[in-house]
Amino acid sequence: MQLIPCPWCGPREEAEFHYGGQAHVAYPADPSAMPDEEWAKFVFFRDNPSGPFAERWSHSAGCRRWFNAVRDTRTHDLLAVYRLDEPRPVIS
Amino acid sequence: MTDLPEHPDFLWDNPEPRKSYDVVVVGGGGHGLATAYYLAKQGITNVAVLEKGWLAGGNMARNTTIIRSNYLWDESSGIYEHSLKLWEGLEEDLGYPILFSQRGVLNLAHSLQDVRDSVRRVEANKLNGIDAEWVDANGVKEICPIVNISPDVRYPVLGATFQPRAGIAKHDYVAWGFARAAHELGVDLIQNCEVTGITTAGGRVTGVETSRGRIAAGKVGLCAAGHTSVLARMVGLDLPLTSHPLQALVSELLEPIHPTVVMSNAVHVYVSQAHKGELVMGAGIDSYHGYGQRGSFHIIEQQMAAALELFPVFARAHLLRTWAGIVDTSPDASPIIGLTPVENLFLNCGWGTGGFKATPGVGDVFAATIARGKPHEYAEPFALDRFTTGALVDEHGAAAVAH
Question: Which CATH number fits domain B101-163+240-327: 3.50.50.60, 3.90.79.10, 3.30.9.10, 3.40.1190.20?
Answer without folding.
Answer: 3.30.9.10
